[in-house]
Specification:
The chain is α/β, with parallel strands linked by helices. The chain folds into four domains: 357 residues, TIM Barrel; 72 residues, no CATH class; 213 residues, Class I glutamine amidotransferase (GATase) domain (Rossmann fold); 58 residues, no CATH class. It is 28% helix and 24% strand. The protein contains 19 helices and 30 strands. The chain has a nine-stranded mixed β-sheet, sandwiched between helices. The chain is globular, with a radius of gyration of 27 Å.
Length: 772
């Protein structure tokens, strides 16, 4: 496919201007399929009772265990697909037969007919076949909103270095549409309304409970470039135009812009775009000081660039709410972590416009691609589940477990390992958090092994049995994700050249600060809540003993005051790396001191590894042979705590203090200046804060007042301690009774296994036990 993005593979090419005019006329104001019979959608409700969510369809509650599959979408990637007889229908029927009643198919791409209207031929065949095969199932359709042919200057063009034509290239991922496209922004809401109206004109609408609303083009899931593309950015002419309009709204006059940027030649109509090498520069310790003109340019661009998904999504959801019934609509993404280097700077940094939208019902994100296999942990790219609850949204984890039948490098070693990982995801998300998951089968056939089908059947039975069990949030630890921080992060410890952009040390620092930190946190031995930073100031957030800020490099004065209020009232705040180095206006170690109450200096670049003090570890019963903080493979700017008032907790090899704590009011502030923490550090912070630890080992642990989930890394005896006397404890899947009126249990489990314990309130009588 070339840069002109010719569509419909072999059909006679239309003139884009005429085609676009026809398409806009058809879809721009369309809200129903005129003259066609309209069929009812199901009555879908997402209800929230305090922190417990329930999904009901036509008055009946359903376990939000969903099966997702991509096979029907593969035609868009050039793969053969028989829309009537493909093997996917047999595989979906197997899931249906074991009890799955909600499916998420990736729908075929909607094309265009010669009259400028959408061509739904393949879309309709797939839906009709699915309803034939699984007649009582319901569907959440993953739909790519089809773009019209666009003017060339609104098609995606990506580059590391704007202006260098040898580096620039057109994206060939899905459709070549820029998120900055003015045409697509005006067109997409009406196009989505047209798709929903078409669905309503068919009997299969009675099985459609919602959609995953996807965009199109290079950034089609509303994030921004990832993987190798994350090193690039969109440099199409429409980006420059939108950036100019954004600057005019902010600065009003070109004179004000020139003063802010220190550039007497810049024009509002054609502002320059910063390339990768510009975005890697820093003013202090790897971060930019936006008070400096050279950095103000980059900050302005990132502020503008990162808000484009919201500018597209909000009007689409406005139209969905205006035209249709309140279905179960959601989006994929809103990532609070992005494991791709470079793309971190160009990811959405503001979440509340979408989280607050009444038409949005769920957010779905996939597992991280790190510690995800059996023996690992449950962590999704958007793990701010407490924020989802605060806004009345369901979090759905895309648990794309890769069974041993897969062969893509992420597959499990055995069927038993796949079952253990699947059970971990089910128990962590559905039982302990009362949210949802879907298992995602990409090529088709991953989950048709009898053992995996049996596991899904068992999970559904457990889910139904506990549907009416109350849910109690027992988390004493809060994690705050401040994605706006990345707009100030310079990525590297030097001005990058393209040949070194994937250098191991710089890549590792970023992965440490995001993925590794949160994966390690799941081995704390206690549950946690997580919010995006925009929700930290909410009065209904509640109190926590330990508040963790893994990458809060920007802390504005109001947020700083709220942190201090919580600490002075008795909470412990744990910060990592260059916490609070910018307040949004300036960047300096003075800002860090105002936040932390301790003096910090920045050195390096150097190796970023330290060791937990042996006496500290003994005092707080941190029984780990490896007391390492940081990563020996990572090198970046080094932050040292240089303050005699601070109690040292860890030191670098040269004796400089790498982690320390200081009293403030009734609470404490801890800074671990290495970019990454460890289970040992998290347990130390929890003990200082008085958080109840259910387990001392570094196994993955999740808990509510009613369930405790332990997913083991190693085979050994595990001592479980409860914060209260538990009337009865039972392993959910085996039915084994472990104890009555217990405060503590010792269990012996093999490595890479998932144990799910029901913590009952009232002891069941003999008749109930017999019936069970």
């Amino acid at each position: 496919m070339d840069a002109e993005n010719k569509r419909d593979g072999g059909k006679e090419e239309m003139k884009e201007t005429a085609f676009l005019a026809a398409a806009m006329a058809v879809f721009g104001a369309m809200s129903c399929a005129g003259g066609e019979q309209q069929h009812a959608f199901p009555d879908v409700r997402l209800e929230q009772n305090e922190t417990a969510l329930s999904l009901s369809i036509n008055g009946k509650r359903y376990v939000p265990l969903i099966f997702a599959f991509a096979r029907t979408h593969y035609v868009a990637r050039g793969a053969d697909f028989d829309y009537v007889n493909d093997v996917v229908y047999k595989q979906i029927r197997q899931l249906y037969d074991v009890g799955v009643r909600i499916f998420n198919p990736c729908m075929p791409e909607i094309g265009y007919g010669p009259d400028g209207k959408f061509d739904y031929t393949n879309f309709d065949i797939v839906m009709q076949r699915l309803v034939e095969v699984c007649p009582e199932a319901f569907y959440i359709l993953r739909i790519v909103i089809p773009p019209p042919p666009l003017p060339k200057d609104e098609q995606i063009l990506v580059s590391r270095r704007p202006g260098d034509t040898s580096d620039a290239q057109a994206s060939q991922i899905f459709d070549q549409i820029s998120l900055f496209s003015e045409t697509y922004r005006d067109y997409a809401p009406g196009a989505m309304a047209a798709v929903m109206a078409h669905i309503a004109s068919h009997p299969y609408s009675e099985r459609i409970i919602g959609t995953v609303i996807c965009g199109a083009g290079f950034e089609w899931n509303w994030g921004n470039p990832s993987a190798p593309w994350g090193l690039m950015m969109d440099i199409s002419p429409t980006v420059t135009r939108e950036f100019g309009r954004w600057l005019e709204r902010k600065y009003d006059t070109v004179e004000a812009l020139r003063a802010a940027w220190g550039d007497t030649a810049v024009e509002l109509t054609s502002p320059p775009l910063p390339g990768l090498e510009d975005r890697t520069l820093s003013d202090i310790g790897g971060f930019r000081d936006s008070s400096r003109p050279s950095s103000r340019w980059i900050q302005d661009f990132l502020d503008c660039y990162n808000d484009q998904p919201n500018r597209l999504l909000v009007p689409i959801f406005d139209r969905v709410a205006e035209d249709g019934p309140p279905l179960f609509h959601g989006v994929f993404g809103l990532a609070t972590m992005n494991t791709s280097y470079g793309g971190v700077q160009t990811m959405p940094g503001v979440f509340t416009p979408i989280l607050e939208h009444p038409a949005l019902k769920f957010i779905v994100c996939c597992l991280t691609y790190g510690d995800r296999k059996a023996g690992g942990v449950s962590v999704y790219m958007n793990t701010a589940i407490k924020s989802h609850e605060l806004h009345g949204k369901m979090s759905i984890g895309e648990a794309d477990i890769r069974p041993s039948t897969a062969s893509d490098g992420w597959n499990e070693a055995s069927i038993d390992d796949a079952v253990a990982s699947m059970r971990r995801e089910f128990a962590a998300m559905l039982l302990c958090r009362r949210h949802g998951i879907w298992y995602f089968d990409m090529p088709g056939g991953w989950f048709d092994r009898p053992e995996l089908l049996e596991e899904i059947s068992n999970q559904l039975q457990v889910g139904k049995a506990v549907m009416d069990v109350p849910h109690t949030n027992v988390a004493e630890t809060l994690v705050v994700f401040e994605n706006r921080s990345w707009k100030y992060f310079g990525l590297a410890d030097h001005k990058l050249e393209l040949k070194t952009v994937w250098s191991g040390e710089n890549q590792q620092v970023f992965t440490d600060m995001t993925q590794s930190n949160i994966e390690n946190l799941m081995r704390l031995g206690a549950p946690n809540d997580a919010v995006v930073a925009e929700d930290f100031m909410r009065p209904d957030l509640g109190d926590y003993k330990l508040v963790i800020f893994p990458f809060s490099f920007i802390v504005d004065p109001d947020t700083r005051a709220e942190i201090h209020r919580r600490v002075e009232s008795g909470a412990t705040a744990l910060f990592l790396y260059a916490a609070g180095i910018t307040d949004g206006a300036t960047a300096s170690t003075d800002n860090m001191q105002r936040l932390l109450g301790m003096h910090v200096r920045v050195d390096g670049p150097e190796q970023l590894v330290a060791t937990l003090d042996a006496e500290v570890a003994e005092r707080y019963a941190i029984d780990y042979d490896d007391r390492t903080l940081g990563n020996p493979k990572a090198g970046h700017f080094r932050y040292d705590i240089d303050d005699p008032a601070v109690t040292p907790l860890a030191r670098y090899a040269d004796g400089a203090v790498a982690a320390g704590t200081i009293q403030r009011g009734k609470g404490r502030i801890i800074l671990a200046a290495t970019p990454t923490a460890s289970p040992a550090l998290y347990k130390l912070a929890a003990r200082i804060a008085g958080v109840h630890l259910y387990c001392d080992t570094d196994d993955a642990l999740y808990a509510s007042g009613e369930f405790l989930v332990l997913h083991t890394r190693t085979a050994e005896k595990k001592r479980l301690r409860f914060p209260r006397v538990v009337p009865w404890v039972e392993e959910v899947f085996s039915g084994e009774q472990l104890g009555r009126d217990v405060r503590e249990l010792t269990v012996e489990l093999p490595a890479k296994t998932t144990a799910v314990y029901r913590l009952g309130e009232n002891v069941p009588d003999a008749e109930q036990e017999t019936n069970q």
